[in-house]
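Input C-alpha cells:
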C-alpha cells in the first residue's frame, strides 16, 4: 500500500493522486483474495474507474464524476454523447468510447471462448492490434507532467 501511495504522490502533490494510489493498492491487494475480482473484465472496469481521481482536478471533482456516473442515469444517445464530450470537448471522444465498448465486448467474448475450451487468443490479439493501429494517437500529444 505504501508503494502505491508513494506512486500516487510521485505523479502529483494533490490528494487526488494519493487517493488514486491508495485505491490502486487496495485493488491490487484484494484482487487475489476476492473471487469476483479475479475476473479480468471486472478488474479492467474497476481499474478504469480508478483513473478518474488521477485525471480529476481534485477529489471533489472526482466525486462529482462518480456521482454523475451512478445516479440520474439517462441512456439516450444525446445524453451519452454530451456526457462523453465533457472529457475531451470534441467528437473524437465518441470514437474512443466506441473503441472502449468494443474492447469490453471482445473481452467478454474472450471469456466465453476460454470456457468453451477453444483458443482464440491469436484472433483477439490481432483485433486489439488493429484497434490500436486504427484508433491510437499518432503524432504529438500533450505531456501530462508538464505542469508538475
Amino acid at each position: 500500500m505504501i508503494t502505491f501511495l508513494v506512486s500516487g504522490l510521485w505523479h502529483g502533490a494533490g490528494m487526488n493522486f494519493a487517493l488514486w494510489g491508495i485505491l490502486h493498492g487496495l485493488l491490487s491487494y484484494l484482487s487475489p483474495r476476492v473471487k469476483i475480482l479475479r475476473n479480468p473484465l471486472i478488474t479492467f472496469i474497476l481499474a478504469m474507474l480508478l483513473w478518474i481521481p488521477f485525471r480529476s482536478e481534485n477529489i471533489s471533482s472526482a466525486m462529482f464524476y462518480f456521482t454523475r456516473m451512478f445516479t440520474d442515469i439517462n441512456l439516450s444517445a444525446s445524453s451519452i454523447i454530451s456526457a462523453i464530450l465533457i472529457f475531451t470537448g470534441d467528437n473524437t471522444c465518441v470514437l474512443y468510447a466506441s473503441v472502449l465498448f468494443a474492447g469490453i465486448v471482445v473481452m467478454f467474448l474472450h471469456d466465453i471462448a476460454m470456457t468453451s475450451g477453444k483458443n482464440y487468443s491469436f484472433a483477439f490479439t490481432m483485433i486489439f492490434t488493429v484497434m490500436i493501429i486504427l484508433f491510437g494517437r499518432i503524432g504529438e500529444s500533450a505531456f501530462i507532467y508538464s505542469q508538475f
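The CA atoms of residues 5 and 16 lie 11 Å apart. The chain is about 70% helix and 0% strand.
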